[in-house]
Amino acid sequence: GSGVPGEPWRLDFDGIDDVVTVGAGTLAGLDLAASVEMRARMPADVQTRSYLIEWLADTTPPFAGMSLAVEAGKLRIFLGSWVDLVDVQPSSWIRIVAVKKPGYWLVEVDGVTVGSGSVENSGAQTTELVLGAGTFAGIGQYSEHAAFSVPEFRVWNRAPSPANPSVLAPLDPPPSADAPRLPPATPTPATP
Q1: Are 85 and 98 in contact (CB under 8 A)?
Q2: What's the pLDDT at 172?
Q3: 3-state DSSP call for residue 115?
Q4: What is the spatial distance between Cα 156 and Cα 131, in angstroms, rounded to a whole number?
Q5: DSSP state of 73
Q6: Which residues make Cβ contacts (< 8 Å) with residue 17, sequence separation at least 6?
Q7: What pTM did the predictor assign?
Q8: Burial readout 4-22 (b: 16 or more C-beta within 10 A, e: otherwise)
Q9: C-alpha separations of 166 from 37, 92, 99, 170, 173 in Å
Q10: Are 118 and 79 in contact (CB under 8 A)?
Q11: pLDDT of residue 159
Q12: What secondary structure does DSSP assign to 81-107, as a single string?
């Protein structure tokens, strides 16, 4: 991106072989509580399954951990089976917050809750955390790559509080928002 509103600096994934990984077992405590927050430009092809992020406790069913993908025009979360959350438009910018803790899960898109429940299928990060593909086939084996863009991404080993569910929301509205913006300030020289 060019660094202007609507075109932020970002990681662009080609949907072929681009991934960003965090080593297996690096992030402790994600089985107790996990929150993912990202701004992302959805793939141009939202019909074919492509993983936005995945980490797993084990690469066998029920594939506990955190898996977010797009497929059939929907943002989806894996909770032992795929759950459709909300329609997504090709190449659109959205802000996603996904939270899992024992007995609870929640997903918000652009500040609106699009899914929640009590069967969270959470798990420790024993595989790599993979941004841009699935890792369900095993460590170092990536598939169903996403051709998408990510300017901001965070993972926490806790659930955000209701008072502050996000650090992104108050700081930087999604680029799709037509919020008024102040022009850049021009420094005024100090007078002696």
Answers
A1: no
A2: 41
A3: strand
A4: 15
A5: T
A6: 142, 145
A7: 0.83
A8: eeeebebbebebeebbebe
A9: 8, 21, 11, 8, 11
A10: no
A11: 85
A12: SEEEEEE--TT-EEEEEEEEETTEEEE
The pair of structure tokens assigned to 47 is 């019909």
Nearest to 147, CA basis, from 137, 134, 133: 133
Residue at token pair 């990060």: 125
End-to-end, the C-alpha distance of the chain in Å comes to 41
Give the number of other Cβ atoms within 10 Å of residue 169's Cβ.
16
Token pair of 71 as six digits: 């497929």
Q: Identify the segments of the chain with pLDDT beneath 70.
A: 1-6, 161-192
Contact 149, 6 (CB under 8 A): no
How far apart, in whole angstroms, are the C-alpha atoms of residue 152 and residue 170?
Answer: 14
The predicted-structure confidence for 74-102, as pLDDT tens digits, reads as follows 999 999 999 999 999 999 999 999 999 99
Cα separation of 113 and 181, whole Å? Answer: 26
Structure tokens at 185: 């300030």
